[in-house]
TrEMBL record:
GO terms for biological process: proteolysis. One of its GO terms (cellular component) is membrane. The chain crosses the membrane at residues 68-86, 98-116. Coiled coil: none annotated. It is found in: Membrane. It comes from Auxenochlorella protothecoides. This is Peptidase M50 domain-containing protein.
Length: 130
């Protein structure tokens, strides 16, 4: 018999709303690429069928995050398109480039922070294993 996948206990939209309303607690649960790989490896070891569900959740989360109205993401470009439609003319190119560059810097910094935090966490786990 094929095992039926169990629904994720916290859908992505719930996680985003919790991040906004309870940042202190929820931000500790946010992982970068290393943490996601660790969880994916755990899922693959314990439930190979669950790996497909895990991959689907990762893709869904990426789609939701990408649609947020932040500079350098698709949602940020959509905000610029709406602003241009409301104004009836294009925004100044230097303003658009500056806002997008600052958003890219912010997202890159966040990514680096999450990678470092995950590396420290994984390093601590490796030390306990040895």
């Amino acid at each position: 018999p094929t095992p039926t996948p169990t629904p994720h206990p916290h859908p992505p939209h719930t996680g985003l709303s919790q991040l906004a309303t309870n940042f202190q607690r929820t931000s500790k649960a946010v992982s970068g690429p290393l943490g996601i790989l660790r969880v994916g490896a755990d899922v693959a070891r314990n439930d190979s069928a669950g790996l497909f569900q895990f991959a689907a959740l990762i893709n869904l989360n990426l789609a939701i995050v990408n649609s947020l109205p932040l500079p350098a993401l698709d949602g940020g470009y959509l905000v610029f398109l709406i602003l241009e439609a409301v104004r009836g003319r294009k925004l100044d190119e230097t303003v658009e480039k500056t806002v997008m560059a600052s958003g890219l810097l912010l997202l890159t910094s966040l990514g680096m922070f999450l990678i470092l935090r995950d590396a420290v966490s994984l390093g601590g786990q490796l030390t306990r294993l040895l």
